[in-house]
Write a structure and sequence with these properties.
The protein has five helices and 28 strands. The protein is of the alpha/beta class. The strands form three sheets. It has an eleven-stranded mixed beta sheet with strand order 1-4-7-10-13-16-19-22-25-27-28. A nine-stranded parallel beta sheet has the order 2-5-8-11-14-17-20-23-26, with no helix packed on it. An eight-stranded parallel beta sheet has the order 3-6-9-12-15-18-21-24, with no helix packed on it.
Length: about 270
Amino acid sequence: MATNVHKSAEVHADAKIGDDCNIGPFCTVGANVTIGNHTTLRSHVVVDGHTSIGQDCDVFPFVTLGVQSQDLKYVPGTVTYARIGHRNIIREYVSIHSGTEENSETVLGNDCALLAQSHVAHNCIVGDHVTLSHQVSLGGHVTIGDYANLGGLSGVHQFCHVGRAAMVAGMAKATQDVLPYTIADGNPARMRVINKIGMERAGYSDQAITEVRRAFRTLFMREMRLEDAVHEVEKTLGEHSHIRLLLDAITSSKRGVARPESSTFEINVSN
């Protein structure tokens, strides 16, 4: 089917627009933009810079995609990128900025839902099936794993990682890494418990959830140095890929992990 471009939209002649797209009223699409088939820009959407949007995306009014980084280290004229995958829902007033350094990029995966006024800063890497609720704010260079869920008004500090199938609760402030499969809450955010529902939605078996819970208790609910607890989990559960992902997130962390508080023990012993 033919692409429909509203008469009030400004689409640069060099932009590459796929088949069966809808470019709504007062949208602006820059010269170095690529938009995949069956994608809709509803109205007042700005897509600029070297930005690609995949197929079957639905972009709501007043969204800005691929615009210049807000990083004050950005050098005018630097070529950077924003890459947005397929089947994403991007709601009102969302902003996704381009990278800062030459040839760097900001990435949003596939099948994500970015709710109104959420922000993805420069050089973030956001995985697949991620939900950013209303007014979530990601600082620069943040990494979000597949199937993660960030609650409304939560914030993630620059360079932090939120792991696969993890959840950051509404209004939480994550200043250290949130490990895969966990729920973090508070200011600053601390891991509280295993994200059982999130793991189920991501397709993990009951056995895998049980193994992750055992690993979490060993890592944080026993009076052991974290390094020793990691070695213990490696010996007892390290053959499982989901446990290996959990341990790798600990050993590779640059900002440290959002360790649970002592009161978290009571939450976990009954699970």
